[in-house]
Amino acid sequence: MSPSTSPRFFTEREVARHSTKDSCWVLLGTRVYDVTAFLRMHPGGEALIRSRAGKDLTQVMEGPPHRHSPNARRWLEQYYIGELDRESGAEEVQVKRSLTATPKRRDPTKGRRNYLVILDLVDWRKPLAWQVGNLREKYDAWVHQPVDKPIRLFGNPFMEAATKTSWYWVPIVWLPIVFYLSWHCYTTLAQGNTRIELTSDFSIPIPKHVFPVLFMIGWFLWTFIEYCIHRFVFHMKPPAHNYYLITLHFLLHGQHHKSPYDGSRLVFPPGLASIVVGLFYMSLCKTLPETISVSVFVGGLGGYVVYDMIHYYLHYGSPKRGSYLYSLKAYHVKHHFEHQRSGFGITTTFWDHPFNTVIPDEKF
Q1: pTM
Q2: 184 is in an annotated binding site
Q3: Residues 131-146: pLDDT tens digits?
Q4: Which sites bind Zn(2+) (predicted)?
Q5: pLDDT of 313-352, one tens digit each?
Q6: Is 294 a domain residue?
Q7: Of 255, 270, 334, whose CA–CA distance to 69 is shortest?
Q8: Rg of the chain's alpha carbons, rounded to an integer?
Q9: How high is the pLDDT of residue 304?
Q10: Is the N or the C terminus of the chain less surrounded, counting Cβ atoms within 10 Å?
């Protein structure tokens, strides 16, 4: 609902009727929210929020089991549609609706706690890439207040399209390469000609059954690269005075934190990903014998594909409660909404432990 319009009024019976996946409403005190569009995104799963349809979420928002962050409360405000009228009957509610049908100017912060205010410091009708650098010292706070809006980065259609991709292009492009290189490395090792030269007189043969070990080493190496890129590149803190570094940060990752459910930007476009893939391949070829380096590389590439698919699933999937992916989803949502300076692991939380960036457990 626009801040410039007066609220609609609903009876408790009307709110209770909206309890399906096609129309799901909830309450926070006397405030009514239509969270239908949020069902698929809800970290706890669609069934959990539907079980509370038509009910007051005040106690649930405070926890336990989970105390919702100020960002989560701001997010909920995007689905506000009106007010609950407990005392009036249906006829009186209808009269109130007719009286408030004409838009009126009002203070959007009146009657709300401060954390419910969403600051819009940019013009969403225009490309954001050239605006965010002007936010300066306000950028960090703004980019970490997520919204449910699609982002347009560039006015040029070709540049804009280059920053988007559908999730299925990742396996379509990269899995054939993974399968081919895996077969190539295994058959090459099976010939028995691959050796590691330790000295001019001594070398160690590498048999074909070592390939799975090399593949898993590459996969494990990718999890470390994944952590480092996410923490030290995507979450660099650009200087408040530097327009270009702020813009670069927003293009790399800031746009994802501002609009975490923009489905067109949850995985890397293959063209951009090929730069990182190419650097990874060249680094390995410089340090290891050819077949061994390719074996490690293909494991890392496989790890990357799994990383992108898991990342998409953590935003849009509904994993079974108590499963590993369910815990990963809860962990990643906390990273987006509350702990942006920790919780950098996506496919695993392993590297958060030695680097001391584990998201702390909640205390009540």
Answers
A1: 0.82
A2: no
A3: 999 999 999 999 999 9
A4: 230, 235, 253, 256-257, 311, 315, 332, 335-336
A5: 999 888 888 899 999 998 999 999 989 999 999 999 999 9
A6: yes
A7: 334
A8: 25
A9: 97
A10: C
Strand pairing category for 8-10 and 23-28: unpaired
Long-range contacts: 196-203, Cβ < 8 Å, 24+?
196/289, 196/292, 197/289
Q: 């506000």: which residue's tokens?
A: 80
Give, as one character, the DSSP assignment of residue 56.
Answer: B
Q: Is 144 annotated to bind ligand?
A: no
- 335 appears as a binding residue in the annotation: yes
Tokens of 331: 């962990």
The continuous run of DSSP H or E covering 142 comes out as helix 139-143
Distance separating alpha carbons of residues 296 and 273, to the nearest angstrom: 18
Please report where in the chains the tokens 């799901």 appear, as a residue: 24
Measuring CA to CA, which residue among 191, 183, 215 is closest to residue 305? 215
Q: Give me the number of domains the chain comprises.
A: 2
Q: Collapsing DSSP states into helix, strand and coil, what is residue 119?
A: coil
Q: Identify how many contiguous H helices and E strands the chain contains and give both numbers.
A: 14, 7
Domain coverage including residue 61:
9-84
Q: Would you state the structure tokens that stand for residue 303, as one six-digit string?
A: 């790890």
Residue 230 labelled as part of a binding site: yes
Q: Output the six-digit token pair for 78.
A: 């995007």
Which tokens hold the place of 56? 């007051």
Please indicate if the annotation marks 253 as binding a ligand: yes
Using alpha carbons, select from 166, 164, 142, 24 the residue that is nearest to residue 81.
24
Residue 222 contacts residue 299 (beta carbons within 8 Å): yes
Residue 169 counted as domain residue:
yes
Identify whether 110 is part of a domain.
no
Residue 101 CB coordination number (10 Å): 10
Whether the link from the prior residue into 65 is cis, omega within 30° of 0, is: yes
Claim to verify: residue 208 and residue 341 sit in the same structural domain: yes
Task: Scan for tokens 């965010």, then name that residue.
Answer: 132
